[in-house]
Amino acid sequence: MQLGRNPLDLLRFLVHCIQLHHQSDKLAVRYIASLCIGHRSTGLTMHLCQPFKALVLAVALMMSSGVDINKHEENMNACPVIQCCAPGTNGLSGRDGRDGKKGPKGEKGDQGAGLRGLQGFPGKAGPQGTKGDQGPQGEKGQKGESASEKSTLSDSAFDALQRQVTALEKNIQTLQADISRHQKFFSLRWVKSVGKKTFMSTGTKDSFKNGKSLCAKAGGALACPHNHAENTALREILKDSEQAYLGMSNVQTEGKFLYLNGEPVTYTNWNTGEPNHNKNEDCVAMYDNGKWNDIVCSNSEMLIICEF
To answer: pTM of this prediction?
Structure first.
């Protein structure tokens, strides 16, 4: 092999020589050193011999470790590109990929713990359903009433209605009597109150019998004093020279005066010499001075005073 000035040719020559004379690591090293010294005599410059020596040591190291130099030479001929500059900056992010295929439907989850929403509005009414089957026939009804029975019932109903009308008429009459009684009550002009008792008068004169009836219809009774205060109140109602009937008599028991309710008289204010019990003097009258006198009931008309 002819040795030129190219360092690559020198390397190839060195590899060839090592393959021919490879007997031991020491012989190879010596052989390479002799070649380097002999190459100086050919005029190779000093700066090429320095890296050559380093290359010789590297080849010796590879031979001792069992590295295949031929493969290393092939790798050298491949001329790999080694990046020696500073690392570059990151580029922009790429576009998002397309969505994948839709996956299978997941299982139904548990019901949430939130509050239940408000009930929605009712939906529209659905279509009308088909007509149902006809139901079973009902039981036969009872026999109706005849015309004569209806007539009897009508008569009885009429009688009942007539009784109701009669009862209503009686109630109306009772109400009219109550109204008349209250009218007479409110027509009383003179009023005197003593304790729980009230004396009233219409201002008109009448008989003893009619006076009792008038006061009873008004809801009271013919006045009769039971003490001095009541006697004074009655006297104040009388005008001068006027007399009034008192609610007592001795019709039931001659010579013994009783109240109209049958109880014995407990208070009296007789005039001097009275009562004299003359014939038919069964009633009692009060004078304008408050004194009492027994008189005939049937013929005399005096002021009527009622007590309530």
So the answer is: 0.41
Q: Are 60 and 29 in contact (CB under 8 A)?
A: yes
The closest alpha carbon to 249, from 298, 214, 177, belongs to 298
With beta carbons less than 8 A apart as the criterion, state whether 213 and 181 touch: no
Q: Which two tokens stand for residue 182?
A: 């209250």
CA distance linking residue 252 with residue 297, whole number of Å: 13
For tokens 């393959």, name the residue. 19
Name the residue ranges covered by the structural domains of the chain. 203-307
pLDDT (tens digit per residue) in 145-177: 666 655 565 778 888 888 999 999 999 999 888
The hierarchical CATH code for the domain 203-307 is 3.10.100.10
DSSP 244-296: EEEEEE-SSSTT--EETTSPBP----BPTT-----TT--EEEE-TTS-EEEE-
Q: Give tens-digit pLDDT for 67-114.
A: 454 554 444 454 444 444 556 677 777 777 787 788 888 888 777 666
Q: Report the alpha-carbon distance of residue 281 to residue 22 in Å, rounded.
A: 193
